[in-house]
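Design review, sub-item: ligand-bound model
Attendees: FS, YL, KQ
YL presented the inputs for the uridine-5'-diphosphate complex:
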Amino acid sequence: MSILVLGGAGYIGSHTVDRLLAENRDVVVVDNLVTGHRAAVNSDVKFYEGDLADKDFMRKVFTENPDIDAVIHFAAFSLVAESMVDPLKYFDNNTAGMVKLLEVMNEFDVKRIVFSSTAATYGIPEKMPIYEDDPQNPINPYGESKLMMEKIMRWADDAYGIKFVALRYFNVAGAKPDGSIGEDHGPETHLLPIVLQVAMGKRDELSIFGDDYNTPDGTNVRDYVHPFDLADAHILAVDYLREGNDSDVFNLGSSTGFSNLEMLEAAREVTGKEIPAKIAPRRVGDPDTLIAASEKARKVLGWKPQFDDVKKIIETAWKWHTTHPNGYDDRD
Ligand code: UDP
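KQ shared the predicted structure:
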């Protein structure tokens, strides 16, 4: 039995492939390398460069690897701001891509999929923390594209018996503790990598987007989770489906919130650097606070996140950034 990882060269995908290999699981990776990095994946892994929306390409992958019995799907665009200006890019790549993927999975009788969903499917929550059955009213095309993907999987389960687990991530941050793989986006838009780039002198200062939110210090509060812990949740979800369980949805977060100012302060402590920062206007589409209720993943999947301290998360990211100031361009 082998696991097909779509988007395995991306940030979270590459950490999951790494964990799967550490557990001696059989893995096949597909990535179109539009945002992923070939160097993020162990060179011994069976790797196909191509697009999951290309059905003939995907037929070739399944034909050549008849032992694939489960798919983990990370291959999607994920920038909120970009999705606001180019929504069709998101509905095409993310949503339409899911339709094509499920068609080919069904053709090859592959009936298990673990899917990267997002807290962005909840929109502006009415209460905290957020539970899996809370209303989903996304406020940007990115969140909408992922909610549509969840719904498509529900109907595909009803009609074809393709079982799914949708994992709704909150804010992902950190790197492999040995610093060998990490976060490398171009352009970088996420808080922690930007904070650490300022700490390294690669940027002049951090802009904190808004300090007049309805939170204790006025800056947004987010729930940070480490990619290693996410990786474990994906592997547990594959096992859960292989055991014959029904489709389900789980939040993945630490259940603790940190404000943008608290993240900055923690990064100053971990790095020992000053990290100049200024308050800038709000960014469009940022809810005040996002904190996950993640008891369900702990209870049902047996998920035990190890990175329960945001400083530990920042330490791992700092190791990656200081050893790879230019991201994967610095790797052999
Ligand atoms: N943020 C910020 N300055 C930046 C980048 C992000 O103040 O240069 C804030 C952003 O407004 C949000 C939080 O950091 O409140 C997390 O944003 P990020 O883009 O990392 O993740 P998202 O929540 O959008 O997935």
